[in-house]
Design goal:
Oligomer: single chain
Number of helices: 29
Shape: elongated
Distance between the termini: 91 Å
Helix content: 40-55%
Largest sheet: 4 strands, parallel
Number of strands: 8
Length: 666
Amino acid sequence: MDLKNIIFILVFISAISFFIYNSNKIIKNLTAGKKKDYRFDNIGKRLKNVWVIAFLQKKLLRDFKAGILHVFIFWGFVLFLFAVVEAFIQGFYSPFSFQFLGPVYSLITIIEDVMGLLVILSVLYALYRRYVIHIPRLEVGKAEKIDATIILLLIMFVVIGMFGENISLIASHNFVLKNYEVRPISAILSPLFYSNHPTNAVTFFEIFWWMHVLVVLTFLNYLPFSKHLHVLTSIPNTFFANLEPLRNTIKPLNLEDESVEVFGAADIEQFSWKQILDGYSCTQCGRCFSVCPAATVGKSLSPRKIIVDIRHRVEEKAPLLLENKTDEEIFGKTLVHDYIADKELWECTTCMACVQECPVMIEHVDSIVDMRRDLVLTESQFPSNLNNVFKSLETNYTPWAFNQSDRAAWAEGMNIKTMAEDHNGDILFWVGCAGSFDERYKKVTKAFASLMQKANINFRILGTEEKCNGDTARRLGNEYLAQMLMKENIETLNNYGVKKIVTACPHCFHSIKNEYKQFGGNFEVLHHTQFLNELLSEDKIKLKDDASVKKVTYHDSCYLGRYNGVYDSPRLSLGKINGLEIVEMNRNKSKGFCCGGGGGRMFLEDEEGGRINIERTREALETEVSTIASACPFCMTMMTDGVKHFEKIDEVHVKDIAEIIFENSN
């Protein structure tokens, strides 16, 4: 063992010890969150998520240019582990090489050389995007920009160190590669750098070797202090992410637990360890920010800021909590109010675009709803106009101040039976509050009911026994009211032995299909576009020879599409109409833009920034169609208001898919 090995061993042990010490502090901070959150189920599916999302970079590739850039850097880094391990072992035993792997070593060296060049080009392009093009979502604070630059430069220096080693080693062997060593790029570069001074190659090999190992160790120890900690946390965060369909559901609160002092989350100790891990996993890449409808129109909400604020608060408060120390200044503040303003939380439409786009599987909406729950249930601090909404839900079982006895008034003269009159129907039509009371949407209800009658479907309604599905109350943080409505509806449905339900409201569809299971409500639920597509495919609804409208654009509802993956049936239903052409908006299907009505926003005022529905309507009008098709009562209202804003109400009509099909049926 020579002096080089001794020095390396001392440096290596010191660096690894320092890294373990700082990593352990982060792991301990995760335990500051006291909310229970079991994430060890379905290991096979979780491992598949890690492979597809973390390693194959599926989510990153939704933005292809940035995605392919990251793929090169990520896989280059993964494949460089062979070079790093080889260099580190040489620190203990200088003559070591992976040459004994034979032909496999040739494959490794080729990949290292090619990926090395791609990584350098990718890093340069990444810097170009930040400092020359100025991609909006990458425009963060000065400290964050410096941090990203340091990380990118460290990555590049790791690769330069590797290339320096290789070209020096080749030169020291008179430009002849060792057995099984195939380095096409290094072989070209070596004579260019050492053509006149090959005798210096051995010295420079040692310089580049030290550069390589020291930069790697520096990078490793910088990570716990960097936003790029996601290099280490993204894989576990992906593994522990909620699995479908739970990923898009709100977890229930145990409202009967008398030991609970805070319902929801006012500060980090009310979060779960996974929500804290989300904070440590955020790359601040801005993908969530770039698709957030509230942020797009200039409101205060930034999903990225919410998650970063959680991390900052954890780093400030968690060590004190874990060591039972107090600090009046730190403990005198809370995450909600002092770090995250109330208005940021109320501006979320819960559209799930941020969750869908996040490449490291952060669950922004869960944390936002938890903080809303604290504001409503614990602090009773919420926008004043929600008082009437909550009161109406509690007394009238609808967000609006309508009389429950009028819930089935729309069906007068249509010969539609209620479950109370005859519960032997094949399917229950869940009408929903908008379908029962909103004058415009009652036309949709009648159109869909008429189509079912034309198709000879034996269906029933609940009539006055139906109550709000609970979605609005739940997303607004009033879990107590939501659970009351959900449990009462489930009791009614179970008493009648209901098995199959169809509804025209995506919020009812999602809630009854996915969240009622939390309280014993297990039903087969179809959205009316799915059911209509079935009826049309089975030729149970006859269509006219020529469409009444020629061109339509379809607006995807977040709760139908992004929440439940229903993108095709609405389009297939419209596509069956003879002579009708669907013109897609720029943002469609999984990249569709929210109408602005979800998450209770339908009942809240727009206090700052632009209006989300105006942004979406503008995009719809750019298609130059005469009809905007929707499949959601909230979307219809928001898009109609948008058309009125642009003074196009006489030229462009907003219609539900059921109405369009009814108009074109025989």
